[in-house]
Amino acid sequence: MDRLTEAQKNIVEAPLTGRVFIEGIPGAGKTTVGCARVRRMLSAQRAGKRTLVFTPVASAGEAYRGIRTEDGRSAWVTTFNGFVQQNLNLFWPLIAEEAGYSAGGSAPLFLTIETAQVVLQSVAEPLWEGGAFNVLQWTLSRFLNQATMAMHKMAAAGFPFETYAERMKSSWSGDGTMRSVFDLIQRLGLSFKETCRADNMLDFALQLEIYQRCLAGNPLYRRWLQDHIQFFVHDNVEEDIPLAHAFGLSIRDIVDSSLAIYDELGGFRTFMGGDPDSARKLRDGADRTGVLSDSFVSSGSVRALAAVIENPNAPSASLPGNPVEAFRFHLTHYYPRMIKDAARDIAALVHGQGVDCRDIVIIAPLLSDVTYTMFERELRLKNLRAFAFRASRGLAVEIESRCLLTFLALLRPGWGYPIRNLDLVQTLRFFIPGIDPLRLQLFVVKAFETAAEPDGTVRFTPKRLKEMAEKDTRECSPVFLSAFDRMSEWILARRDDETPPDQAVSDFFHNVLTQPGFAAHGSVAESFPLCFIKLIDSLKKYRKAMDALPEGRLTWRMYMRAVADGMVSATVRDNAAIFPENSILMTLAGGFIGLNRPFRYQVWLNAGSPRWWERIMGTLTNDAVLSTGWREGDVWDDYRKYERNQVEMQRLVQSLLARCGERIYVYASELNESGLDQKSNLLYLFADLSARLQPKLPIEYMPPIAGNDPAEAGLWDENWFETLAQDGSESEAEGE
Known about the structure:
Blueprint: H1 6-12, E1 18-24, H2 30-44, E2 50-54, H3 62-65, E3 76-78, H4 80-95, E4 109-110, H5 113-129, H6 140-156, H7 164-171, H8 178-198, E5 201-202, H9 204-215, H10 219-228, E6 229-234, H11 242-251, E7 257-263, H12 276-279, E8 288-292, H13 300-310, E9 327-332, H14 335-353, E10 360-364, H15 369-381, E11 385-389, H16 399-411, H17 421-431, H18 437-447, E12 448-452, E13 458-462, H19 478-493, H20 501-513, H21 527-548, H22 556-564, E14 583-588, H23 589-595, E15 599-604, H24 638-658, E16 660-669, H25 681-693, H26 720-735
Parallel strand pairs: 1-7, 1-8, 2-3, 2-6, 4-5, 6-7, 9-16, 10-14, 10-15, 11-14, 15-16
Antiparallel strand pairs: 12-13
Helix pairs in contact: 1-2, 4-9, 5-6, 5-8, 6-9, 7-8, 13-24, 14-15, 16-17, 16-21, 17-18, 20-21, 25-26
């Protein structure tokens, strides 16, 4: 308590009565205040009562979960979705009939993101196969994800899904053919909900709808809340959904005291239904408000840089430091050169200045496999390791998980997961290191028997070593051959048996991959535990759903098809927090902000990419249109897109700076990874800053060599930054 500022103490020590609302920038100690106040709440908590704490995502609640009083009291820390699910499960007999389900029946099955997509796929298949959605030109997995999110966002905002088509059509300014698609999505969503009711299932959207319609206002439920909840805290309210804010407005009238914490530079979960404007309503009617504006994270120079970006005309005397010391801007012509230079400068920080790897984060607008592979290789050449955090990636997208799925396809060939020779090569390299890809490709052709399946897939069967000719194995080492033979024997002995797949994957890891000759022998590679956890968790949840539903509603063949099509997987809690020691984190800007932790040094990659500025709105799930702030009759046109992108980029830049301790390194290339010219407003911003604040750039521009690229000869001149800054201003004027 002694280390708190006066502003923090005033909030923490305020009487445990009434409604409290605090706001501030990232790094100002808002969560610290929340934790300190929760400790006081727990100490004052009466017998039989609870202190309820909401965070927008489970990982954001770790600070609150660690709080315990001397007599063992702890808070009930959860997300609003988790709270809704627990309460529906508890009060289901009371509301089942009103919700449209069988009265007196068993508790419903709560679908995960994955099982919901599989069920939706079975409902959407006739329309999809009939070409009803061809105008979208999407993959099936993207379509299912967007349709699922459309239902979730409508429910999160409290809108009946019956109004979805009219809401989207009235705001649409594009091709008229999309209007019929909105009608089809509404019809599909309503059919999906009927299927869920018929089979006693609840997806996320139905959970929210039923909770708000049948339970939230129930007098018995309200009495239960009053009898069991004494204090309520809601952190990062700006990232939560409107129904969570409605709950906060409701429960603060029946608890002794409530606390809402708002991040002024937040609001990056709108793609999941988060609504900062709705969160501001919690300020209305508050008995006590507080503002925390002093950063405990950023140096004076970083705060000065943030001030100069917000107000270019800010007088130097009013700045808390020298903004020039807070950033380094490096421009190259070619994308690979940008990657090399960024890796070189990171190595200089770690090896030259002794900076801890965990104090550096690499932030990119898009983190493709190409970018990650290039950067990981450059860092590895400098004795550094990288760890990529990419939430909600499909299981079949990650190489490690794809290798495990290939193993499952060998173990359960009847499930129809498509594999190729290349998948087998990657899998063997992942499981059994020490052989080069060329020899491995030749070996795979001889080591597997193939047979065509009726559905067009190919069944691969591994051979035992004794079944192979000597000439087919002479190029491989005895260690590799012994390991391959052990793996083949294990697969063939258990092929198509009754072992649940999640148990089979676990057994394979412990009984085979940890043995001599395999990659997990001795010290387990860091990527092994995470990819196994993700796949086993997915398989286990799907198996439980299969067991709870009528036979045939879900099958393993449906699961494998959805995974192969790129089904978005549920994220594993804390998979960003367990990245290996001495590794440098690579992530997207939004993913980094979601981690809610500061770093001394930030590396911003590819500042020329339009994705730093342009927020891609889903065609079926437009964040602005499906929010409570959207006015009926408004149209989503180019002007609104430009206006929103400008605001979003400014908030993103300020939010990243607020989480930076000492300096940002900004890297840009004139050509993107595909060799195409690129420019963005972020590039113009730092070109202008460099021209105004830095007479000489700390890192020189690397122009193309005229002799190697005649088309680019004469491109570079000493006034390039001034020219680029002027181009940026003209481009913005044209956009307006």
